[in-house]
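Issue: ligand-bound run for N-carbamoyl-L-aspartate - logging full I/O for the record.

Environment: standard queue, default settings, no custom constraints.

Inputs:
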Amino acid sequence: MTRKHLLSSADLSRDEVEAILDTAASMHDVQRREVKKIPTLRGRTVINLFFEDSTRTRSSFEIAGKWMSADTINITGKGSSTSKGESLRDTVKTICAMAVDALVIRHSASGACHQVAQWVDASVINAGDGTHEHPTQALLDAYTLRQRLGSLDGRHIVIVGDLAHSRVFRSNVITLGRLGARVTVVAPPTLMPSGIGDWSARDGFATSWDLDQTLYAASPGDRPDAVMMLRVQRERMSGGFFPTEREYTAGYGLTRERLTRLYAATPDLPILHPGPMNRGLEISAEAADATSSAILDQVSAGVAVRMAVLYHLLAGETEAAA
Ligand code: NCD
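Outputs:
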């Protein structure tokens, strides 16, 4: 696979997704060793440039780079010269003048990473751009689901929550679709992105406003093989998207009652959430901590998948993975 940037999930063919997930599986083995270090990216420099808050994505990119022996540096919007008014273009050109190999970027503006890729020679990896995309999250979700379910061909994945503001959902429908999964997305009408009808027809996923009908479909073949809950992204909301939190939870939360009913049919149903969670709002503590919860597996997969992405973009096929 010879690819310079990872900007959108749509960049990756099914073969490329599978190649990254297979590499991630061998990287996961490295993660289980006592000494977690391989020389693959020795002498390469990876900058994590985060203009939005992050716990999982930023630290996992940093760990991934370090375990592969790259030099990794973190820059955040607040501590950098952007807070003195420097433009994004000047910031990235300045960083790249230091001869870095890759820029991992998170930015509040949709399309920021595509723009940066045109300004710099380094590889650019999208770590979340506004409400647009988050391709490495979709890869780690696919990895986690494959670990739990095996092949995703024909599997039914239900994604529930604040779709209007979710880059995770946008990347996931593409990547899961590439792997042959059937996806249904569920949200209240006010949190459905506008134009989703055309888009679901193009990318082949289903939409619903009715969570219970989707979770407890009459035909067993239509019931979910996994459920992914998404965070209510208050920081991206300017107005009232739902009357009260209690009503949101009643209609769209993975409550204890819903979990019990789901478990009656499928006791090992994988439950995913990209984090950070609003416990008690979109997901109950019982669901987050359930025995079939895959939420911490997602975090663990995040490091392996990001190692695999760095490997494919920076080391290509010329070096051994381990
Ligand atoms: C997601 C993000 O930042 O888009 N989180 C993450 O990367 N783990 C989802 C979210 O913030 O809700």
